[in-house]
UniProtKB/TrEMBL annotation:
<dbReference type="InterPro" id="IPR008318">
    <property type="entry name" value="UCP030820"/>
</dbReference>
<protein>
    <submittedName>
        <fullName>DUF934 domain-containing protein</fullName>
    </submittedName>
</protein>
<dbReference type="Pfam" id="PF06073">
    <property type="entry name" value="DUF934"/>
</dbReference>
Amino acid sequence: MNILQAGAVPEDQLNVLVIGNDADVLEASLEGVDRVELNFPKFTDGRAYSQAYLLRRRRKFEGDIRATGDVLIDQLVQMQRTGFSSAVLKEGKDPAEAERQFARFAEYYQADVQVQQPHFARS
């Protein structure tokens, strides 16, 4: 997962689609979209997890899905497992601390967006 700090996010020439938490991602037009930004207005609002999962699994979106808003370091692993490929941390948060989150667990029992078979079904 690509971890960025707030304020240090470069503006580029990508076609970016910002989707609100109340929008149905199954109906969004993804033609020509390079990045989808999903917002966490507060860390207890998990609708963006479902949106990311639907974009990856049902819509087969292969571009960047970026988490913005109230992004907490301890939620980054779950964000990646549900389909996010990048996240913008709040100002003052250390990206190195965020990267350590991914080293804590080698694998998971459950299937997710990246590994589509549960542990018991893998050879």
